[in-house]
Automatic annotation (TrEMBL), chains A, B:
Lineage: Bacteria, Bacillati, Bacillota, Bacilli, Bacillales
Organism of provenance: Paenibacillus donghaensis
InterPro entries in the record: 6-hairpin_glycosidase_sf (IPR008928), 6hp_glycosidase-like_sf (IPR012341), Beta-AFase-like (IPR049174), Beta-AFase-like_GH127_C (IPR049049), Beta-AFase-like_GH127_cat (IPR012878), Beta-AFase-like_GH127_middle (IPR049046)
Non-reducing end beta-L-arabinofuranosidase-like GH127 middle domain ranges (all copies): 441-537
Protein name per Swiss-Prot or TrEMBL: Glycosyl hydrolase
Pfam families per the UniProt record, alphabetical: Beta-AFase-like_GH127_cat, Glyco_hydro127C, Glyco_hydro127M
GO biological process: carbohydrate metabolic process
Domain called Non-reducing end beta-L-arabinofuranosidase-like GH127 catalytic: residue spans: 18-430
Domain of life: Bacteria
Length: 655, 655
C-alpha cells in the first residue's frame, strides 16, 4: 500500500551529549526542579499552585476513581509534555525514580485508553458522545500529538515501548476516522501538533503511513469546502469556549485560511503557526516536496525578517496570542509567548534540515538565549508566559492593555503550557547543536558537547568545548575511526564581524569557503585534529529596520548571542529618561554578583533629571540631561532581582 | 422646608454672543449640519447610518405605535442631547423650522411620560416592573439629567416651558423615590449626570429643592453601606449588560469607591468622572462648601497635572473608557474620548466659578481647540470617538490592541454620544468666554463676542474681537452705561511668554497686577474705552514631564492654543523616521489650501531613510539620516486629507 521508509529521504538527526557549563546548569534545573515540581503539580500536591487535575482526569477515565473532569479541554497534554521531558531527561541521565514515576503514569494512560484505541480524558469522562465533533476547539489530535512525542522520546531513552504501543493504537483509531477514504473526515485539528508528532513517529518506526497521515492533515488544511467552517456551521456556529455563538470563525487564527502551500505571511496564533511550519518543513525535507519547501521559506522570511522581536519572541498581540502584521512589534504590549519561541526553535531546526543556512540557526540561537532562557527564573520555579521587551510594572497592573504582561515571573499557570515546554526543550537541547547534509557536519550552536555520528563513511566523534555565551572561544576535536575526508561547517553568527579559525594551529582565511553563512572546512581528518574557532564577542549596538516604528531612534545592546537590557535594579527609574551616547564605548565586566554570574555592560549615556524639570505636566523647556553611566545586563536575567522597570531598546543621542 | 435660592450664592453666569470668524464657522456647522443630520438619524431616516430607534422608542412608549424597544438602555439621552443643542441653537438664531421640530418631539415626550411623572422609554416599554432596580447599569437618572439640561436650554432660548414642566414632574417623581426620608432609596446613578442637571434646574427655577436633591446624590455616592453594591448583591451579582454574573463590582468605574470628598485621584470611566466633578464644583460654588471645593481642587490637580494628554484628552485606556494612573499617557493605545474632553470643559468652567485661576481656563482652551475640535471632520458629519496622538492606520485595523482607535472619522456611532455632545458644546460656547467674581470680569477665552452684563453696579457691554487662533491680537471695547469702576482681567495663556496690553493706546506693564494668571485692570471705565491685547503667538516646542514615559526624548509643536501634529499627507511615512533638529527654527505660513485655511509650521529635521538601511530586521549600523523639512499642521485638522499616519510627539535630536 503506502510507501516504505526507504521511499523518503531520511536525513539522520544528530543528537549530541551536552557538556557545557552554562547550559548544563539549566538542563539540571529542568531535571532537578522543573520535572519533579511539575510531577507534583500534575498530581495536585503543590500547595498554593492552581489545581491541575490532569492526573486525576486520567484516574477517572481509567476507572480508578470517580469524579468530574476538570481543567482545560487540552489538560491531558500537560501529562504528555511531562512524559516527553522525562524521556529526554532519562536519555541524558538514567534515574530509576523518575523512570518509575513515568512508568506509573504510562500504566495509568494504558488504563484510560478506550477499547477502540481512543485516548482523551475530556471526551471519555465528560462528553463521550461528542468525540471528533469539534476539531476547531477541542484539541483531541493536539493531545494525541503530544503523547506521540512523549512516546517516541520515552522509547528512545529507555527502550520501553508501552506508551508507543498505546499511541500507535490511538493513531490507528485516528486513521479510521480521518483520511482520504470514503466516510472519513477530511478534517484536521484546530491546534496543530499532531502533524509534527506523526513525523517523529514515522522516523522512529519507519512506518510510512504515519508520514502520510501527517501529510494528509497538512494538505487538507485550508482546502475548500472548509472543514472547520462546515463543522462550525453544523454545530450552530457555537464555540466550545463558553458555548456562545460567534459572528464569524477566524480562520487565520489557526492558519486554515488558505491551503498551506499558498500561505505567505505568518498569521494567527503564533504557537499554532510555528508548530505547523515545523511539520511542513520536516515533511518537505522528508519528501523533497519543493512547493512545500518554498512555502516554508516564504513563511520563514516573513516571520524572521518582519515579525520577530530582537529577543526571538514572536506574536505581537495578546488577542489570540497572535501575529499582527509586518514591522508591528510593540515592546510593551507585546505577547512573545515562551511556547511560541520554543516552536520557532523547532521550526528553525527543521529549516536547517531542509537547507544548511546559518540564518536559520541565527534565529534559533536568538530565541534560545533570550526569549526562552529569559522566561524561566533562576530558581526554575517561576516563569514568564509573555516576554516583554519593555516593562513599567505599574502599567502592567493599572493599564488593562498591559494586564497580560507581568513584571514578575509567575509560579505556574492555569494554562501551564510554558514551563513543561521549557523543560522539554532544555532536556532535548542536544538535538539542536548539529545538522548534517551529505558528508558535511554543520555546527549550528556553539555548545560544549560530544557527538558520535558517521561522516564520509567513517564513524566520527566530535568533541566541542565552548566558552559561550561569555566568550567566543570554541574548540572542536575530531576523532574519526580512521582518517577520512568530510566537511565541517562552522556557523558565522549574524552578530559577529568575523571569526578566526585554526586547524591544528594553522590559521585559515576566514572569508574563504563561506557557504550560506558557514565556513566549510573540507579535508581529510585524522584522529585528534583540532579546530579552534575564535568569534570576537564584544558588546555592540543594534538598530531596527526603519519601518519598525516602535524602535525608531533607539538602540539595543547585544553581546554575542545575548541581547541586553536595562533594569531598574541597576539604573534609576524611569528608564525612559535614559539616552545612550551615540559615540560612547562600552565597558564589559564579568559580574559574579549577577545570578549565575554574567557579563554586565557599562555604557556612557545621559539622563533627564526629573528634579530639574520646571514645567507642570508639559512645559516649554526640556529638562537638562546629565551624563550617566548606564548599566545593561543580559535580557535573560531580567526580573531576577526584584520587580522594576526593564527595557531592551534605549534612546540614542545625536542626529 | 428647604432653603430658598437666596440662601445659596448664585453667581451670575455670563453668556456672550459669539462674533468670531473661526468659531462661527463651526457653530454654523453644528446648526446647519449636525443638528439637522442628527434629527434625521434619531428618526432613522439616514441611509447607511446605524439605526437609532430613539424617536421610535418614544412613539411606542407614547402609544402612538406598537413595537419593541431598541438601542442602548440610555438611548433616550440622544433625544435629550439633540433638544439641548436645538435649544442653544435657537438662543443664537431663531429658526421656526427647528423650533417646530423640537416642539414636536417635546409633544411626543409629554405623551410618553407616565401618569406618575416617570419618563424613560426602556422601562416603560421593556421592563415596566423594574424601574429603579438597577441604578448601577441602567442610566435612568442619567437620561433624566439630559432631559433636564435640554428643558432648561430650551426654556431659556424660547421661553417655552413645556419640557421643563415635564421634567419638573419627573424630578418630583424622583424625589418620591430617592432621598433622605424613610422608605426612599439612598441611591444614585451609575452614570453621573443628574447631579449637574439638577443644578441647572435650580439656577433656572430658583427652587432650592433641586440643588438639595443634587447634593443628596453627590453626598450619597460611595457611602457605606454601599448602595450600588447592595443593589448588585440583591439582583444576584448580575450585570445588566449581557446578564452575566460578575466576580466583582468595579466601584472605581463609576467613582463610587469612596465618598466624593475623600477622592484624590481621577479614576474610572472618564466621562462619568468629569460629569461628577462638574456637579461637585458647581455645588461647592453655590453652597460655599469648602471641603467639596478642596476635593475638586485635588481631583483637578491630579487630572490636569498627571493624567491629561497635551491635546486635552483624558482617559488612557479603552477598557472601561477610563483613567489609568499618573503619567500613563500612551499616545497610540489612548482613549481620550471626545465626550470626556467636553466634560473636562464643563468641569473647568465650574472651577472658574469657584476661583478665578487661569490654569482652569488653560485646560478648557487646550481641550476645546485640540481634542474636541479635532473630533469633528470639516464636513460636520464624521467624528472621532477616540482621539489618538499617534496613529499608524494599519495597526488600527491589524493590531487588536488598537482596534478602538480609528484612523478615519466615522459616520455616526451605535453609541452616538459624541456628535450631539460636540453640537451642544459648540452651540453653547458663548457660556465659556467670561466669568465674573465680584466686580471683576474674567476673560477666559479669546473669542470674538459681545457680552452684556453688570459690573460695579453698572450695565456694561463688552465687545471682543480676536484674531485667535492664528494671531494673538485681541481687542476689548468697553461700553458702560455710565462711567464706573470695575475690573477687567485678561488671561495670560500658559503657552504664552508674555503679553502686551494697551488701554486707550497707553501701554500697561504686563507683569503688574498679575493675579492667578490674569492681568487685572481695575479703573474707572468710560464709554468706548479700548483694551488692546497682543499675545505673541509663535510656534514653539513643548516637552513632557520626565515621568511621562511615552513622550520621553520627544517634543511637540504648539502655536498659541493649537497643538500641532505631523501627518503622512505632508511627510513621508513612517513618521517615526523623523527627528526634529534640536536647534532648528520654525517657519510659519498661513496655508489657504488646508481645510478652512490654517497656519502650517515648517521645521528643520532629519529623517532615517529606509532605502539606506543595510540590515535585515535588525542590524549593527544605523541607517544614515538626511536633513529634511518637516511640516506640521494643527492637530484639529488631522485626518481631513485622507488616511495616513499622524503623530503629535516627534523625536528630537541632540543630547
Amino acid at each position: 500500500m503506502g510507501k516504505t521508509v526507504q521511499d523518503y529521504h531520511t536525513q539522520p538527526l544528530l543528537t549530541a551529549a551536552v557538556r557545557d557549563e552554562f547550559w548544563e546548569r539549566y538542563i539540571r534545573l529542568a531535571q532537578d526542579v522543573v520535572i519533579p515540581y511539575q510531577y507534583e503539580t500534575l498530581h495536585d500536591r503543590v500547595e498554593g499552585a492552581e489545581l491541575s487535575h490532569a492526573i486525576a482526569n486520567f484516574e477517572i477515565a481509567a476507572g480508578r476513581k470517580t469524579g468530574e473532569f476538570h481543567g482545560f479541554v487540552f489538560q491531558d497534554s500537560d501529562v504528555a509534555k511531562w512524559l516527553e521531558a522525562a524521556g529526554y531527561s532519562l536519555s541524558i541521565r538514567r534515574d530509576a525514580e523518575l523512570e518509575r514515576k513515568a512508568d506509573g503514569i504510562i500504566e495509568l494512560i494504558a488504563e484510560a485508553q478506550q477499547p477502540d484505541g481512543y485516548l482523551n480524558t475530556y471526551f471519555t469522562i465528560k462528553e463521550p458522545g461528542k468525540r471528533w465533533t469539534n476539531l476547531n476547539d477541542c484539541h483531541e489530535l493536539y493531545c494525541a500529538g503530544h503523547f506521540i512525542e512523549a512516546a517516541v522520546a520515552y522509547a528512545e531513552a529507555t527502550g520501553k515501548e508501552k506508551l508507543l504501543q498505546i499511541m500507535c493504537r490511538m493513531v490507528e483509531h485516528i486513521e479510521s476516522v480521518f483520511g482520504p477514504g470514503e466516510g472519513r473526515l477530511k478534517g484536521y485539528d484546530g491546534h496543530q501538533e499532531i502533524e509534527l508528532a506523526l513525523l517523529k513517529l514515522y522516523r522512529y518506526t519507519g512506518e510510512a503511513r504515519y508520514l502520510e497521515l501527517s501529510q494528509f492533515f497538512i494538505d487538507q488544511r485550508g482546502q475548500q469546502p472548509h472543514f472547520l467552517q462546515q463543522e462550525w456551521e453544523q454545530r450552530g456556529q457555537l464555540s466550545f469556549w463558553g458555548g456562545s455563538r460567534m459572528e464569524q470563525l477566524d480562520l487565520k487564527y489557526n492558519q486554515s485560511h488558505l491551503p498551506v502551500r499558498e500561505q505567505t505571511e505568518a498569521v494567527g496564533h503564533a504557537v499554532r503557526a510555528v508548530y505547523m511550519y515545523t511539520a511542513m518543513a520536516e515533511l518537505a525535507a522528508l519528501t523533497g516536496d519543493e512547493a512545500l519547501h518554498q512555502a516554508c521559506v516564504r513563511l520563514w522570511d516573513n516571520l524572521a525578517d518582519k515579525q520577530m522581536y530582537l529577543t526571538g519572541g514572536i506574536g505581537s498581540t495578546h488577542a489570540g496570542e497572535a501575529f499582527t502584521f509586518d514591522y508591528d512589534l510593540p515592546n510593551d504590549t507585546v505577547y512573545a509567548e515562551t511556547c511560541a519561541s520554543i516552536g520557532l526553535i523547532f521550526f528553525a531546526r527543521r529549516m536547517l534540515m531542509l537547507a544548511p543556512q546559518a540564518r536559520y540557526a541565527d534565529v534559533m540561537e536568538r530565541a534560545l538565549y533570550n526569549n526562552v532562557l529569559g522566561s524561566m527564573a533562576q530558581d526554575g520555579k517561576h516563569y514568564f508566559y509573555v516576554n516583554p521587551l519593555e516593562v513599567w510594572p505599574q502599567a502592567c497592573s493599572c493599564n488593562p492593555g498591559k494586564h497580560h504582561v507581568k513584571a514578575e515571573r509567575q509560579g505556574w499557570f492555569g494554562c501551564a503550557c510554558c514551563p513543561p515546554n521549557v523543560a522539554r526543550l532544555l532536556t532535548s537541547l542536544n538535538q539542536y547543536i548539529y545538522t548534517v547534509h551529505s558528508d558535511v557536519l554543520y555546527a549550528n550552536l556553539y555548545i560544549g558537547s560530544e557527538l558520535e555520528t558517521e561522516l564520509g563513511g567513517t564513524a566520527v566523534r566530535i568533541e566541542q568545548t565552548s566558552s559561550f555565551p561569555w566568550e567566543g572561544a570554541v574548540k572542536l576535536t575530531v576523532h574519526p575511526a580512521e582518517a577520512a575526508e568530510f566537511g565541517v561547517a562552522l556557523r558565522l553568527p549574524s552578530w559577529s564581524t568575523g571569526m578566526e579559525i585554526r586547524v591544528n594551529g594553522a590559521s585559515l582565511a576566514a572569508a574563504e569557503n563561506m557557504e550560506n553563512g558557514y565556513r566549510v572546512i573540507r579535508r581529510v581528518w585524522s584522529e585528534g585534529d583540532i579546530i579552534e574557532v575564535m568569534i570576537p564577542m564584544e558588546a555592540h549596538r543594534v538598530y531596527a529596520h526603519p519601518n519598525l516604528r516602535a524602535d525608531a531612534h533607539r538602540t539595543a545592546i547585544q553581546r554575542g548571542p545575548l541581547v541586553y537590557c536595562l533594569e531598574g535594579a541597576d539604573n534609576a527609574e524611569p528608564l525612559s529618561s535614559i539616552m545612550l551616547s551615540r559615540q560612547g564605548g562600552f565597558k564589559e565586566v564579568f559580574d559574579e554578583a549577577l545570578p549565575g554570574g554574567a557579563v554586565a555592560v557599562a555604557a556612557e549615556g545621559w539622563r533627564t533629571e526629573a528634579g530639574s524639570w520646571t514645567g507642570g505636566l508639559y512645559g516649554r523647556e526640556r529638562a537638562p540631561r546629565k551624563p550617566v553611566t548606564v548599566r545593561a545586563v543580559p535580557y535573560y536575567l531580567w526580573g531576577n532581582r526584584g520587580s522594576g522597570e526593564m527595557t531592551v531598546w534605549v534612546a540614542e543621542s545625536g542626529v
